[in-house]
Amino acid sequence: MIPLPWSYVNFWRCTGCGLCCMNYDVVLKFDEWLRIIQRFGVGVTRAGLNKLYLGKKPDGSCIFLSRIGDKYICTLQDMKPIACKLWPFRILNRPKYGKTREALFNYKGRRLYVYIDPSCPEIRWGKPSPIMINHVIPEFIEIALGIRKKQVYSTGTLLYSLDARRKISSLFAHRRV
Ligand code: SF4
Ligand code: SF4
Question: What separation in Å is there between the alpha carbon of 73 and the centre of ligand 2?
């Protein structure tokens, strides 16, 4: 699907539905691949023509995807590849997918272009909420720029910090959704 500008999104959070971990190939950077095979062995990865990927289970889902009740969690948390950390957002220096004005995001004076992949079912479309502008998107940008490692808003509900849960709950309570 063609990514759409961040300014179309009222709110997004990962609910751990697991769809992205079932449907996509995860490309690894060389240092990510090296760390993963040092701990788990080369069998959890696979090589393509000129790229390295995470391995998959026979059902096509990521080898590190695990189910807990009706939720899915990533069991590779402390080494999660950056491709997974950034999903479903794309942080770019140029407006690769068009809609330049709508995709522009001013991060501390730096002009970046932020898009979201519409295939994630947890996107709520509409006017961006303050939590998106002030917390969610800045966190994705900081991860993309390599100035943040810890995930607070950009991970599954099960793994949200208490502080993030409070902020999200207050947003939902206010809007009565
Ligand atoms: S990012 Fe979206 S598709 Fe992936 S697990 Fe979270 S809610 Fe599901
Ligand atoms: S490494 Fe984790 S987040 Fe990435 S696809 Fe696998 S289970 Fe999903």
Answer: 8
| pTM beyond cutoff 0.85 | yes
Checking phi first, is residue 26 left (phi over 0); if not, alpha (psi -120 to 50) or beta? beta
Residue extents of the structural domains in the chain: 4-175
- State what percent of residues in the chain have pLDDT above 90: 75
Whose atoms come closest to the Cα of 26: which ligand? 2
C-alpha distances out from residue 151 to 12, 81, 89, 122, Å? 14, 12, 14, 18
Predicted confidence (pLDDT) per residue in 48-91, tens digit = 999 999 999 999 999 999 988 888 889 998 899 999 999 999 99
Q: What is the number of the ligand 2 atom nearest to the C-alpha of 62?
A: 6
**Cβ atoms of residues 60 and 22 within 8 Å:** yes
Q: Which atom of ligand 1 is nearest to the CA of 122?
A: 7
